[in-house]
Write a structure and sequence with these properties.
about 70% helix, globular, about 300 residues, mainly alpha, single chain, about 0% strand, two-stranded antiparallel sheet
């Protein structure tokens, strides 16, 4: 659901950048007050894990489309919403700067769509409400699925609004919305199931999933999983267009002006070895960036 620069006007891009920058400033103040030093490694590792997971596009049966993990909800549950938003922004920034995925102009919009809704709305209002004080596996599964679906629906609504307000295409807003919502309902189910799977693994490791204090064992396992996703599993990711690209293609016959919206850098000519090495390098860069940010904002444990 990454928007490309081709969809975002300078005015809309500036507004969304200001919105996301305000959220980052607010989140940084809260993290300085609340982030335990013992959680610093987990913040870096989770950034790397989400970076790698976002490279795995999963085909949506019967649609010709694919989707990948957004990661905002997962980060919010494990890190808290404020640390989660900062971590997700670092992931998106690395993708935009090193891989051309989304672009700098659209970075504020992508951070808002993928971060604000799951971190600050769906996590506290849906996930925490469903899970409550009794953290059972069934409640974690149900809360993650519900919050994952709603978060993607709100995010896709934001994409349609920002694209329409930008006016760089003449995609009709209502047909565009009516295509975006159902496909992101399916992708939201994937998001919820993937989030639930990771949270249930963390629970099985004996770690409290609600804004958990960092566990060295859990961090190492998640780092290994992220490197495995980036270096091996990403080679088998679906090549189908993602939900946004597929939606634009589906309604492009109704528009006379549709700029190219493909994301990222194609790795087809490079071969599997270079593709894996590039993915692993991006994962490690994200680990470094998110870890350094966490270290700078840490609160020393008493």
């Amino acid at each position: 659901m990454h928007m490309s620069d081709a969809l975002v006007s300078p005015a809309v891009g500036a507004v969304m950048w200001l919105s996301s920058a305000g959220l980052i400033a607010w989140s940084a103040r809260r993290v300085k007050q609340d982030l335990d030093e013992r959680k610093v490694p987990l913040m870096g590792v989770m950034g790397a894990f989400v970076f790698a997971a976002q490279m795995i596009n999963i085909a949506i049966p019967g649609t010709g489309s694919s989707g990948h993990l957004g990661g905002g909800l997962l980060l919010a549950v494990l890190l808290g919403p404020h640390a989660a938003f900062i971590t997700l922004f670092s992931v998106l920034a690395v993708q935009a700067l090193l891989f051309g995925d989304g672009g700098l102009l659209a970075l504020g919009a992508n951070a808002f769509n993928l971060g604000f809704f799951p971190c600050f709305l769906c996590y506290p209002l849906l996930y925490r409400t469903v899970v409550g004080s009794r953290t059972t596996r069934a409640r974690i599964f149900t809360g993650a699925l519900l919050a994952g679906v709603v978060g993607l629906q709100l995010g896709s609504l934001g994409v349609v609004a920002e694209t329409s307000l930008s006016g760089l295409t003449d995609l009709p807003p209502l047909p565009f919305l009516l295509v975006m919502q159902p496909i992101h309902l399916a992708i939201g189910i994937v998001e919820g199931l993937a989030t639930a799977a990771v949270l249930l693994f963390v629970t099985s490791a004996g770690i409290a999933v609600h804004e958990a204090t960092g566990s060295r064992r859990t961090a190492l396992v998640l780092l290994f999983a992220g490197l495995l996703l980036a270096g091996a599993v990403s080679l088998f990711a679906s090549t189908r267009p993602d939900g946004l690209e597929w939606s634009i293609e589906s309604v492009s016959s109704l528009a006379s002006s549709v700029p190219p919206v493909s994301e990222g850098v194609s790795a087809e000519p490079a071969g599997a070895l270079v593709q894996s090495a590039t993915a692993i390098a991006g994962t490690l860069v994200t680990l470094l960036v998110a870890g350094l940010i966490a270290f700078a904002l840490r609160r020393k444990a008493p």
